[in-house]
Amino acid sequence: MTVLAKPYLTDVDASVEQLVYVREDEYTVARMSSEGLAGFVASGRALAGVQPGETLRLAGEWEEHPRHGSRLVVRRCERVVPSTVRAITLYLGSGLIRGIGPRLAHAIVSHFGERTLTVIDTEPGRLTEVVNIGAARQAQIVQAWAEQKEVAALMVVLQGFGISPLLATKIYQVYGNDSRDVLTRDPYRLIGQVRGIAFHTADRIALRSGVPEHSPQRIKAAVLDRLETAAARDGHCFLPLPALLAAAAGLVEQEEELIRRAVDALLAERRVVVETAPAGPGQVVYAKEQHGREVALAAHLARLLRARSTLPLRAFEEHEGLDEDQRAAVNLALTSTVSVLTGGPGCGKSHTVRVIAATVRAMGGTVTLTAPTGKAAKRLSELTRLPAMTVHRLLARQPEREEGTLFQQSPAEADLIVVDEASMLDLQLATRLTAAIPAGSHLLLVGDSDQLPSIGPGSVLADLLRVEEVPRIRLTRVFRQAQDSGIVRAAHRIRAGELPELPGRGGFWFEELDDPDQVADRVVHLATEAIPRKQDVGRDQVQVLCPMRKGATGTAELGRRLQERLNPAREGAAEHWSGPSVFRVGDRVMPIRNNYDKGVFNGETATVTAVNPQDRLVEIRTDDGESVAYTFDELDELTHSYAISVHRSQGSEYPFVVAPIVAEAGGVMLRRRLLYTLVTRAKAWVVLVGQREALELAVHRLGYRRNTGLALRLALSLES
Fold first, then answer.
1. Which one of 177, 376, 499, 710 is most buried, by most CB atoms within 10 A?
2. Mean pLDDT over all residues of the chain?
3. CATH for 216-290?
4. What does the angle CA 196 – CA 200 – CA 201 come to, to the nearest 5 degrees?
5. C-alpha count within 13 angstroms, C-beta hemisphere, residue 651
6. What count of Cα atoms within 13 Å lies in the side-chain half-sphere of residue 577?
7. What is the C-alpha separation between 686 and 657, in angstroms, rounded?
8. Residue 12 to residue 82: CA distance in whole angstroms
9. Bridge pairing between strands 606-612 and 588-591
10. What secondary structure, in 3-state letters, does 556-594 show?
């Protein structure tokens, strides 16, 4: 890369016209305009978090990029108040001030000129002089301006801590005018209260604010962070005390004795629970919330198992087409208040559930079919020919007041409640579900115990299968129609720890490539060109699944490339950048957090229908036809679904699946359950592209067991 002869620039004011590219590490490329320079491109991590319309004071040097030409590599960047008519118009019309769009911005600046911002700040009543601004719009603009000023002041404070403008906005949304006071007095409060702020960020603020490294406040925050990280990243409900001490000590670089004191203090404050395991790691430590859920779930399951059935039992009539195990499964579901039905693909679980549901209905009983995700519920409905809903929709109802969503006391009042894809139930959702089921109702959990466990903490289905007192049956016979499927054959070989037939046939195919960049290129080509053309299907029939998030073959980079191929930027079309993601009309997205107020839940899929800079909104329509609006500040609740993780694909099936299989970063995510889950997401074809040794690694490497105490608690509850 050549450094041009242009001088090092200082104090050059320029407006952000458009964001071109934002990388995961916040490296940003933007098109800029300035009174003193022709339009130019600026790049660098110093631009992290900038938005179109902002005026920046830049310092850097010019470089010649081999592909993109001359650009300013920014070393320092600070936000300044725009002062020219063009810059003010761009700023007001960018959507940064809610209630002002491009047309209204032009009208306001045409009326007030370079004094526009002064008028808004000191004489806001004069805004009504502009056509189309009444009292309501004027009040909205004044409020948005005041909020923007406070956030801007907060950004100045946070700039030295490396905090992005997006996070500064979120801090302000939570604490309002108390934000700076919270940052000064107790920055560790941010953890858990502000989405996107974890221990490292809060700790950076605290240390630079003068909090001592050995502060009890700091060390307690580190202990809680290690418990939260273990739950969020690895699904653990607890950590053995020695492991927790070591992890927290490494995080804050302090002696383990200080960590032990912090654990004792948290125990006294009732923020953690310490127990002694009857067999295993000795003392273990739970976060209070995880412990409460685990205890409650064991109690609810024991209550249901002990209850006398309310099902109006009559003789079970034999159904044609059921084998011995399926008949046993039907009888088990009819006679047990809690039962588990497991089995791999092609073993007839869905047909068995259909017979169970039909039998209960024929007896005069009521049936509720449910699943953890919308797609799983829809598939269950199609297979059983009965209505089905998500567990969240079963439990949740719209609030009558503005106090938030309430949970009904017993919304699951049916004689039989069936939960499909039960391996996806995490501790929290399973606790809510069982709490809502009255004693005497039958609960049937259906799933494949060889698939990945839930995204959230816990391993509910696996734990139940470890308790002898829980009735269960496993279907093992693969029916003739399924035997012809290459996907089913490959899945059963993987489950047994055997390599599938290579390169494959009948719906399963492996294409060997060693270089990760070539693998990524091939995946993009297969998903966007080769498979749609050869199979004569729409591109929306092909889903890319990734074992990893980072790297050339991870969800972030492949998702970006697929978006640029399938839904590129269009001249004049509105778009909005949120971190490294850009949202455009037509994008396929999915919520990654449950939002009961909006009525959308983790794992649902949707399409972006509008990007509205004036009201700072992105509107989506779910595949169920519901229209939902997200503010620009809420967009971290959405992710694009062009390429998704295998975990997020659980409960869904796709006609065609393409997946990279490479050992980047040591292939830490490549495990048997992940590969098995990946392959079984496809209905017609699954194409794996990558390294043979990576495929072998995934087949032979078992996953770790999550730290949970549910099985032991339930067994002890049933003994007492």
1. 710
2. 89
3. 1.10.10.2220
4. 55
5. 30
6. 25
7. 5
8. 12
9. antiparallel
10. HHHHHHHHHHHCCCCCCCCEEEECCEEEECCCEEEECCC
The domain spans of the chain are 2-153, 160-208, 216-290, 307-475, 486-700
Q: Token pair of 553, please?
A: 């073959």
* Residue 363 backbone phi and psi in degrees, to 5: -80, -5
**DSSP 3-state of 458:** coil
Q: Report, in angstroms and rounded to the nearest whole number, the Rg of the chain calculated over CA atoms.
A: 28
Number of Cβ within 10 Å of residue 639's Cβ equals 19
Q: Which fold has domain 2-153?
A: OB fold (Dihydrolipoamide Acetyltransferase, E2P) (2.40.50)
Top-tier CATH class for 307-475: alpha beta
Q: Are strands 542-546 and 654-661 parallel, antiparallel or unpaired?
A: parallel
Within 8 A by CB and 6+ apart from 237, the residues are 231, 286, 290, 291, 294, 427, 457, 458, 706, 707, 708, 709, 710
pLDDT digits (tens, 9 = 90+) for 566-579: 999 998 888 998 88
Does residue 339 contact residue 445 with C-beta atoms inside 8 Å? yes
Q: Which band of pLDDT confidence, cut at 50, 70 and 90, is reported for residue 480?
A: low
CB atoms within 10 A of CB 400: 7
Q: Which residues does the annotation place in the binding site for ATP?
A: 346-350
Which residues contact residue 530 at a Cβ distance below 8 angstroms, ignoring those fewer than 6 apart?
Answer: none
Decide: 609 and 584 in contact? Cβ < 8 Å. Answer: no
Question: Which residues touch 169 (CB under 8 Å, ≥6 apart)?
Answer: 151, 633
User: Same topology for domains 2-153 and 216-290, yes or no?
Assistant: no
For residue 499, the 8-state DSSP code is P
Return the CATH superfamily for domain 486-700: P-loop containing nucleotide triphosphate hydrolases (3.40.50.300)
Annotated binding site: 346-350
Token reading at 647:
């975990």
Q: At how many degrees (to 10) do helices 135-159 and 165-175 cross?
A: 120
Q: Give the DSSP H or E segment for 363.
A: none
Lowest mean pLDDT among 2-6, 199-203, 349-353: 2-6
Residues in the chain, overall count:
720
Q: Which tokens in the block code for residue 469?
A: 């007192």
**DSSP at 57:** E
Note the pLDDT tens digit of each residue in 453-478. 999 999 999 999 999 999 999 998 88
Least confident window among 38-47, 431-440, 660-669: 660-669
Kindly report the pTM of this predicted structure: 0.86
601-622 per-position pLDDT tens digit: 877 899 999 999 888 899 999 9
**428 within 8 A of 323, measured Cβ to Cβ:** no
Distances (CA, A) of 582 to 546, 612, 618, 685: 20, 13, 11, 30
Question: In sequence order, what are the residues at sequence separation of 6 or more whose Cβ sits closer than 8 angstroms to the Cβ of residue 278?
Answer: 712
